[in-house]
Amino acid sequence: MSQTAPTTCWIKDKLFFGLGAREYLRSLLTPFNAVAAMILLAGGVAAVVRFGQGLGTATNLSHDNPWGLWIGFDLLCGVALAAGGYVISSTVYLFGLKAYQPIVRPAILTAFLGYAFVVLALLFDLGRPWRLPYPFVVQAGFSSVMFEVAVCVATYCTVLFVEATPPAFEWLGWRKLRAVILHLTIPLTILGVILSTMHQSSLGGLFLIAPGKLHPLWYSPYLPVFFFISSIIAGLSMIVVEGSLSHRALHHRADPGTDFDALTIGLARAGAIVMFSYFALKILGVISDGNWTYLPTAYGSWFLVEVLGFVLVPCLLFASAARNRRPRQVKLAALLSVLGVVLNRLNVSLVAFNWQLPCEQRYFPSWMELAVTLSIILLIVLVFRSAALRMPILRPDPTYPEHP
Amino acid sequence: MMGLTRRQFLGALGGATAGLALPRTTRAAQKGTLGYPESFGVLCDLSLCVGCRRCEQACNEANDLPAPDQAFDDPTVLQHLRRTTESAYTVVNTYPQANAPAVHRKLQCNHCQEPACASACPVGAFTKTREGAVIYNPDLCIGCRYCMVACPFGIPAYEYHDPLTPRVRKCTLCHERILAGKRPACVEACPMEALVFGKRTELLERARNRIAAKPENYLHHVYGEHEVGGTNWLYLSPVPFDQVGLPTNLGEEPLCAKTGGFLSFIPVVIALWPAFLGGTWLFKRHNERQGQQPKEGA
Amino acid sequence: MRTIQLSLIGTLLAALLVAAFLIAAVGSLLPPTVPAIEAGKLILGSSHEGERPAVLFDHDAHTKALGNAPCDSCHHRDAAGVPQVVEQPLAEESVAPSLAETHGKCMTCHEDRLSENLSAGPTTACGDCHSLANNALGKDARDLFFDRHRHAQHEAVLQPELGRSSCASCHHRYDDQRKALYEAPGKESSCRECHEEASTPTVRGLRQAVHQNCVTCHLQRLGLQKKSGPVDCAGCHSSTTPRDWTTVPRLLRGQPEVATIHTMSSAMAAVGFNHAAHESREGTCRVCHHDTLERCVVCHALGKGRDLQTVKLATAHHTPRDPRSCVGCHELEKQEPACRGCHDRPLQELPTTSCGLCHDGGPGVTEVSSDESAPTTSSSRTGALLAAFQDLSSDALPETLRLDLLAAEYEPSIFPHRKIIQTLLQKLEASSLAQHFHPELATLCSGCHHHQQPSQALHYARCAACHGQDDEDRRPGLLGALHQQCLGCHQRMNLGHTGCEDCHRRRPQQDEVR
Fold first, then answer.
1. Are C384 and C491 members of one domain?
2. Record: contact B191-C483, CB cut-off 8 A
3. From CA B195, how far away is CA C285, in angstroms rounded?
4. What ipTM was assigned to the predicted interfaces of this complex?
5. pLDDT class of C226 with cuts at 50, 70, 90
6. In a shared domain, residues C387 and C492
């Protein structure tokens, strides 16, 4: 057991990397942090406007466009991009591919932070955010897809929180609690996959109720299936993207024993297979609904850009990179496919939604919405960085044994 | 846990599949039981509406709404198409015709028999009352605005200007007045009696009688009889309905059936996934252990 | 560094794909352009299986450019020396020329003129002539309506020259057995009786026949230095302005001024039909007599080769939906704003009360004027109505009525009862049709005082007697009844004054500050 030490020493030790307060603060003066501070300031201003003057002033939402960037990007894309958690944990713990163990912890942390900040973004978007628990404690709308999303996201957030605690416990030195949590790994992972299947597909299911408002090339009774599969794609790709970013930025904390590049090849293989299935399903969806007549229109061309440029091309890049063992190509393909998932979600929620309304009634985000979104992304990055610099995320703590 | 035998694994999977036989409780609408049979409705005869907007004025007064920027008798308002807002539960839009008088259309909540807004709300803030009105409870609303996404007619409006207590606003069919035995304010105010209040079943019959009496005056279709499962607000029109801003591509299925089908898969996932995933884990672990220990019989 | 190369190629491909589809997207947002077609331009060559777009051939431009004797440059003359027009204009003996021949004719001329430094059409690029993107543009010239006015113009020129046989200049019939045209004086009919839209192996189509007849004759007369009509497209195919048909002289073909139409039944009296008066309403005889210009009974009565598909005689005269029937034409007239206030719906069934207004026994009983402007006995009928109206006391027909049963938000409405009847009578004066069918004042009252017997004593129930507080199926409440009646009439008659305050002022509201 570590001896009890004076509080100031704990802060210095645990939080300031052993530096003195002034030295630590001076170390924070980097260009990146300066830009981050400016973005956060803009986000702060936007937050004050939103809660002081209402959504009408802070956003470009209207009666015709009730959902904007905060739902389209923060919620729909955020949840998709945080899917790496359940993808990798099921790969390692359920399908037994132990080689990917080193990337489980960063993936889980990314996922947890992603979901936590999605909830934060939701608090901005909801008209009465303090009533967020109402569906659970006051009255439940069981026929609503959104209720199902709420229940599953809330539960999964808890699951992710629990799954993300072991590195924190190792950092704090709480061995017993850590052991208890690690025993729960398998049931938590299974629960995570079940909950993820449900809410990832339900995000697509949200739009099933509005067939008249969503362009036929994007509307399909299989929207939930599309969203679920694209969440797997997003998860795999985000692991590659976020992994390569954090290895470049925080390489001094990375585990020298892990060959991240080699792992990406395996992820690329999986990505290629999943992406090709997704591509085939999208094409089959267009054919089975007889919607190819929409392809020669402006929206049709945009649909082809999304499906060919951002699904088929990265799929083929993944495949060739995996075959020829080219990590750099994997990273490019992963970036393209992340952009593709983001593009798909934005298309479904903002671009192809209300497609029949005239130009003047269409929606474009305001600067305050962008500021809040960017701030939230930035906060995820900053918290991840803070955690990864202090806790055994990117490499294991040698004083703790492997999971029994 | 000891090694799992093949028999045990298959048995667990079969048991989970039996969970599929559980009754589907989330299917929203059964055929033939849409809405309440004794509910009230309003028949709106567009061949009679002259665009005087007295209905808008009556609604504004009955609901204590703020006065609009342009007065109700200002004819220039009709030059642009408008939609409902948080301070205008109903508006009248004008659709000029070539070689015929303009057709005006009153726009308001259609009080569907199977309202999409009610099925979409995660806290059940919308209720389809026995009287036919679809009403909103601001004490439950969390402000997610999914009802606004769900409504195929684009009716609910939101108080975006309110930072702390924003509400969804829409026509209430003057539910309080109906309970007191009165007619909705707009119906009472219409000088042309283009709006008729009564039992929905009787209104449908009256609508058909009007078509039979003057077949050249109307399109031979009562809008709202079957659209999205039927609405309590019915329209008769001399011109095609899509020319007066009423969507004609909605189909006859209530919109909640589109999500109901998806939601009914939830029990399947909850039943199957644990068996499949747990089984996979056990299988993998079994293989691992087989690989580590020397084989000892079957 | 193959890794980088392939990655770059992949990125480039993606970028190109995006760019290509973005361009496609933007391009498909631009509206397509449709060329305008004016009279005088013909569409040629649209039958070549769509290999090339059709040619927009400016006939008038060519005739102008070719100066004297322009027809011979392209058109063959037939055995009689008449230039062939319209169909197979370039062919000898009506044999269709090959594509090469047609092209040869056009291109040779263009090239020759070019070599002589004269203005010429395109000679090289196919697309310069074959430029019409949309082959389905169909008709190019406005329809020419050969009405009584044009007929009178022709008569005015030809009759002094040719006397009785001037009709034969244009009108002919065809003998199937002798396979020859012959004249049939007194039996002239419309060209359309035999010449239909499309050509058949035996009969030329309407376009072909008419152009052959008209343009050829015009050309001939021009050649003989006689007064002639136009030979260019725009000369005939110019917009026709609506005309006052009463000023055009009657087209005489031996028809009566007043006819007795016998009903072949003892139940109904004969109809005294003023043919001359009806002639002056329309521009052609075909409006009633179809293309044959025969009497109705010749085709619409049973017997003599007519099959069971033919419309029955009674239907032909009485069907309310077809403007060729008597009742149908009258129904159309009743859609005028002056009449529509009361006559707001087309007839479903014929009312039995008005049969006698037409079936009055024969000519001599009704005197309807053929000249609208001069005062005649018909306006003496209106005169009688006016007199009856002025005789009405203010008890029987008050000057105004105070409608106050529903006055709450608005003040009572002052209803100008007498003025309305007076206005209706003025509108009646303008139409002899209306005068004929409104023989008594009571007929005017029935417009508003409906669902009651027209009362000679002009006693009618008040609106509130039948229209109560609430609406019922097919009977609105008083509020709706008054507004539907008044506003409906104002709208249908284009009278304006449909604002709320035009009829009743708003009472100032208690809580109003405005």
1. yes
2. yes
3. 48
4. 0.92
5. confident
6. yes
